[in-house]
Amino acid sequence: MDIPQRLAALRTQDLPVHGGRTMAYVYDAGLPELDELAGRAQAAFAGVNGLDMTAFPSVVALENEVVAQTAALLGGAPAGAAPGTTGGAGPGSGLGPRPGVAGTFTSGGTESCLLAVLTAREHARLTRGVTAPQIVLPATAHAAFHKAAHLFGLDVVTVPVDPESYRVAAEDVAAALTERTALVVASAPSYPHGVIDPVAQVAAAAAERGVLCHVDACIGGWYLGHRRLAADLPAPPPFDLAVPGVTSLSVDLHKYAYTPKGASVLLFRDAELRRHGWFAHASWPGYPVVNATLQGTKSAGPLAAAWAVLRHVGTDGYVDLSRRVHAATARLVDGVRRIEGLRVLGEPDASLVAVASDDPAVDPFVVGDEMRLRGWYLQPQPAFADSPANLHLTVTAAVADPERIGDLLAELAAAVGRARELGPPQVDPALVELAGALDPRTLGPEEVALALAAAGVGADGTLPTRMAPVLAVLQALPPALTERLLPEVVSRLYAG
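Structure tokens predicted for Putative pyridoxal-dependent decarboxylase:
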């Protein structure tokens, strides 16, 4: 078998990345020419090293243009500026960022969020003398912020969200602020339920205490920003850098800008704030180092591919794609609500839909298994706090065709019927009781192996075809124990 054949054979085991049936992890515009265009651009810049922009000035030129186009959309237009309808940022576009907005191109949403937290930590230390920083997060904030707090030594203060709307209340955020608070986060939208936090109120509460406020618009910012430009679509509530008190915002281009993976932008209210997150080092015998991102050496390929796709699609194209996504999401939500046994959690503001069960005989994880066996992937989300177990659907332009949405809803209704016949997976109460007595910090290899075996995970990390029983067990365990076991599952997938 030659190299291309081997690669093609490996891909047969993966979820499809085109066609709209994989409703998580991948974003498909349904525009076949984008792959070839992005591939050519990425190949042309694959060997260009973004570590040193003085050696490769093309990196600066491309990043400046990508950041400018992003800032024009989400940086807050100057007073009196009219939204444009063609091209990106630049002459004649009619779009412009709020004066002073600065940005950084990163490898993805997680890196953008990490840098926002790192910047806030350094800003709080240098401007307010905070030595034991805290980050205030809604319970629905992305796990990337918890990762950032873990890596950079911030204490997390979690604020519960409303059990019906799944939005955080600004007064609860305000009550959680202390002299140690370095950053407050709001989501536009939150990943679990696709709802937008009250950004204006949260940002105002933060500003009143002199605290930075970051808006996580990684998954929704590009879609919401362009939806806002369409007069015939409902505008989202204010969420970007035009909102007083919002000091930074992250938006992924490899989501609803439909660029290849490895493309995100972190915007700051000004360049001075952005500098707090940069790293520079000259106290060694080697070359002077300055990094605006967590990476040092990095290929400029993803940047070039993102630049090419943004230029090709343009503002008009993205507004049209946003129309398609909005229509598809509305039809999906309406259709799910017509299926007996299912309900939509909250009122989705964007293109993410969380589908739970309102029938004890219908387990959403069993529904997910039934869908996957028939070529659809809906992402399972275990129950946590006031959020019940559900299936998460990311709606992209590729699934926007009315016939495709109809197929999805018909298959979903049939899967609910089969799930009702199969019944929910059963979890041994004795196992849950035993697990509750374990200390995740002291688990040895034998105890880990037993726990994974009880959950249905093979010794080599092999997962069963039906994941509902595994998810049911993991959902029933204390979160700290689940967090201890999940890395063990992944580690078994890799040799050595």
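The chain has 16 helices and 13 strands.
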